[in-house]
Amino acid sequence: MYTYTMTFVSPEPIGNANVVNRHSSDACKLVAQKLSKRVLELADFNWTTEYSFDNSLSYLQEPYTINFVVEVRVKLDMLTILDREAIYKRCFEALVKHEVLLTKSHCIENDDPEKPKCIMCFDMKSVA
Q: How many CA atoms lie within 13 A of 4 on its CB side?
């Protein structure tokens, strides 16, 4: 198994920007709920050693119309990385079982205060 960083995006705003700064378990619940309803789309996944945080930040900039970005860093086996649904399931499971912690969260102000552009990053407890 190798560690991968999955990047999920949504044009929908997170809602209240204060949610981003809440306790890790609240953030896990929120993101798990959005994953289960497919509000978040898997945009990218990278072997973590080849990953740059700037990749995820770029989704919040023009020409993208993305308002919410989530990174989830977990270990995946070779069968999981071959199946998009398995990736969703594994990330959902990591959030629900609290295998990951919120390690970074940030909102960027934009023209519409009702639609903050936010990013949340979750990492495995063993390395967070």
A: 21
Residue 53's contacts (CB-CB under 8 Å, 6 or more residues apart) are 71, 121
126: its two tokens: 């063993």
The dihedral through the CA atoms of 84, 32, 20, 105 has a sign that is negative
Amino acid at 117: K
Tokens of 38: 């497919």
As a whole number of angstroms, the distance between CA 81 and CA 67 comes to 26
Tokens of 22: 């809440």
pTM confidence score: 0.88
23 Cβ neighbours under 8 A, 6+ residues apart? 102
Contact assessment for residue 120 and residue 105, using Cβ atoms and an 8 Å cutoff: yes
Answer for the pair 81, 67: CB distance below 8 angstroms, yes or no.
no
18-44 residue pLDDT tens: 655 666 678 888 899 999 999 999 998
The label of the residue with tokens 């990013």 reads: 119
Rounded Cα gap, residues 102 and 121, in angstroms? 6
